[in-house]
Amino acid sequence: MKSGRKAYSDGMKQRYFHAWGNPGPSPQFTKAEEELLAALAQGQSTFPAGDMRIADTMGALASTYMEEAKYDDAEKIGLQAIAIVEAAVKPDDPRLGLGLMHLALVYDEAGDTEKAAPIWARSLAILKGAGPVDKDDIDNLNLHASFLRPFHQNASEQIHQYVFELKGNSGASDADLRPDLEMLAHSQRGTEAEQSYLRLLGIDKKSYAPDDINTRLDREALARLYLEEGKYAASWPLFQENLEILQAKPARDHESSIDRRTDFYQLTNLERSVAQAYAGGGKDAEAEEMYKRLIAQEDANTSGSKVLGPMNLSDDLRGLSGVYRHEHRYDEAIETLKRAQTFDEEIVNSKSEKANAAVRNPAIWIWLTQIELAEIYREKGDNATAEPLFKSALDMTQQLTLAPGHPKLARMLDNYATLLRDEGKFEESEALYKRSLEVWSKCIYPQTADAAETLTNYAALLRKLNRRAEAEPLEARATAILAIVAAPTPTPTPTPAPGTPTAN
């Protein structure tokens, strides 16, 4: 047992501190498995069948199998361990709560959040009455949740929610709860994330000054959430407040070139977010002014990165062209995008992007600019120029590795479908509308004004085809989405007294 636990500990260090959480063959975990299997065989031949030492060995083996991604084996031996513990202790014994905790983690690691949920709930109910949980157990749960977030966000949220409620129940102070609430907020989406960030800002208000780095980071995280959800009117005041704080920040004494570059990118990234929020919210004059300032700053930043500078310029030029398009200033929009194309070519031909393209996804900037250009020509009424650009962009998606729910892909499919609809190519148009809606359904935030526009456009096609019964549900969905996007921003949730758990 001692040798197996030591090998397991070494394997954990290797996986999470050297391999960044990536699963793979590990001689340490292999050794741990061998030692623990040997220990289990000895225990089963020495101790009575229901001895808790056997359950302890099985639990350690289940954890090892989990790290090796042998989830079926981990579940099987974990359930055997729980059965022994249940037969040996009272229903409210903390040892049962801890065993259930580790079994629930196995299910979440495997991405099976439905199986995990009732086990987390049962474990939590037991451990709430058992006093503080060992810090190593809490740290282990947070570690797994953090590495699960990119792959199984729901599982990450389950674990962080469990930790937060468990610590809250133990009487932890706001200061102690804050890091756990922050991790929970990062793993959540939508209304749940919004409420958590509002609670964080409530804690920040009591603990920090408005310009403190903790307050600014939480304020910006909430603003970005609103931006991604398309709630632009809620996002720009938060971005603007942070922007004013940074603009008023005095220069550091003896500032190095690295410090100056860091400050420059912090400020310009925040200005870019403000510009995006202004543009999305229809504040065209403010967005145009901000984008022009960003472009001028990037042009003057001769010490900037040879790749990052062109990337930022391309993004900002596309943003500015979008403002011009919204105001029907199509010629200015086209000229702006043509300048963006020069930076796109510069990015694609850079040494770093050529190296990246050889091993992974080719650069996306040319595609992003082309789909914007195609839409401008479509809105301008020049379908003869727009259609081949759309077709080429659609062909390019075969080479790009886009996320299944990429919002730019959904918009491009919608815009191309609308062009084909207006040309009377109804069958092709409907196929693209269906693809667009499928992509929107897979987006992180599927209920945005752009998704509502796709529903409305598709409904218009169906009405042209005298399919009113099919159009009406789409229109109703679009109306419901727009009502959500336009809903007023909730006020911050009062910070509860320590020990008061929150519901997810």
Structure characterization notes:
With 504 residues, the chain is mostly helical. Among the domains are: 205-245; 257-388, Tetratricopeptide repeat domain (Serine Threonine Protein Phosphatase 5, Tetratricopeptide repeat, Alpha Horseshoe), CATH 1.25.40.10; 402-493, Serine Threonine Protein Phosphatase 5, Tetratricopeptide repeat (Alpha Horseshoe), CATH 1.25.40. It has helices spanning 2-18, 27-46, 52-67, 71-88, 94-109, 113-127, 135-148, 153-169, 174-187, 190-207, 213-229, 232-248, 257-280, 284-300, 308-326, 330-348, 351-359, 365-380, 383-396, 407-422, 426-441, 449-464, 468-485. The two termini are 38 Å apart.
List keywords for this structure.
504 residues; mainly alpha; Serine Threonine Protein Phosphatase 5, Tetratricopeptide repeat; 23 helices; disordered C terminus
CATH superfamily of the domain at 257-388: Tetratricopeptide repeat domain
Rg, please?
27 Å
What is the second-level CATH architecture of the domain at 257-388?
A: Alpha Horseshoe
Given helix and strand content, the structural type is: mainly alpha
Oligomer: single chain
Order of helices and strands: HHHHHHHHHHHHHHHHHHHHHHH
- Low-pLDDT windows of residues: 493-504
Helix content: over 70%
Roughly what is the average pLDDT, rounded to an integer? 90
Largest sheet, strands/sense/barrel: none
Portion in beta strands: under 5%
Cα distance spanning the termini: 38 Å
What CATH first level of the domain at 257-388 would be assigned?
Answer: Mainly Alpha
Counting DSSP E segments of at least 2 residues, the number of strands comes to: 0
What is the CATH T-level topology of the domain at 257-388? Serine Threonine Protein Phosphatase 5, Tetratricopeptide repeat
Number of helices: 23
Shape by Cα distribution = globular
